[in-house]
Amino acid sequence: MSNDMNGTIPKIDFAGIDPAAASPGDGDSRWATVRAAVMDALMEHGGFEAVMDDLVAPELRAAMLATGGAAESLFSLPPTTKARYTNEKPYLGYVSSSIPGMPYETFSVMDPLSPDVVPTLAGLMWPDTGGDSSFCETMHAYTERVAVLEAMVRRMVLESVGVNAEHIEEQAKTTSLRLRISRYPAPGGAGAEGRVGLPAHRDTSFLSVLTQNDVDGLEVECGRGDDGWARPALSPCSFLILAGDMLKVLTNGRVYSPLHRVVIAGDKTRYSCILFSNPKDDAVVRAVDGAVDAQHPAVYKAFGYAEYIAFCFTREQYRNPNKVEAFAAVAGVEG
Ligand SMILES: O=C(O)CCC(=O)C(=O)O
Ligand SMILES: [Fe+2]
């Protein structure tokens, strides 16, 4: 695998796409053009930058990620307060890195659009006020907007592999959302070269939609690992979209799930906000019908998502970058 930083991932302009349109379908040529670009990018690199300037108003983005916004107010709380947001699942709740020299912290919120979820978090963080209403409103409004983009890209991918509207609805019912807000403290002058904020990994999700404050740091491998790494400079109206391992399975290996990592430099703390779509815990994950045929034999066996996640968190697998292959690959078929 190459480690040079000369890669680039595509930038796709979503202008002219109406996120509110139910299902534009093939009759809409703009939709078809953007869908083809999305699918090409996901097959070639597993990611792209989506430019969509009317999805999230600048004020809402600032209320979420800028100085004094929801992310900063959450992480500014004392460590013992943040630690109240626990969950028995290792990938949910508040987590702070135990790796020396890598002071990463994150809140992972399951089903962020369910009415009680964000108020519960706010109530734990600010028990005296019972939760700050502007925090809840910002979190909800922001997540709702980004979820529109996530659902739209997922629909484009499924349409591209021949899934009809009815089955797209069925797939949506087996999908859940998770919001992750992370803080990467600035390394300061000593870290001029950059410091690893999060080691290289692939996401287990279908899709991950990332936004950040104005501090870049995400690096993504390009060309399925053959074309170096990209460090996209995200504009304020961009969203970084990555495919995860579950989308790779759904599309029978057509879509790639790229390695990515965070490297931070400079004097400004980085905040990122990622909306993940995942299979529900009780879902069985398998390639969609249209993705398997005589020319494309099944690359993965069907499996239960909960079993897969349990496998990912075993000591042997935790650092394996190719977990889905280890768990579910059909012998002799290339993904
Ligand atoms: O915060 C970021 O930029 C990326 C984090 C990430 O890759 C993850 O949480 O899975
Ligand atoms: Fe990730």
Automatic annotation (TrEMBL):
A single GO molecular function term of this UniProt record: oxidoreductase activity
Organism encoding this protein: Digitaria exilis
Residues annotated as domain Fe2OG dioxygenase: 175-279
Protein name: Fe2OG dioxygenase domain-containing protein
Keywords for this protein: Iron, Metal-binding, Oxidoreductase
Similarity-based family: Belongs to the iron/ascorbate-dependent oxidoreductase family.
Listed InterPro entries: IPNS-like_FE2OG_OXY, IPNS-like_sf, Iron_ascorbate_oxido_reductase, Oxoglu/Fe-dep_dioxygenase_dom
Gene3D superfamilies linked: B-lactam Antibiotic, Isopenicillin N Synthase, Chain
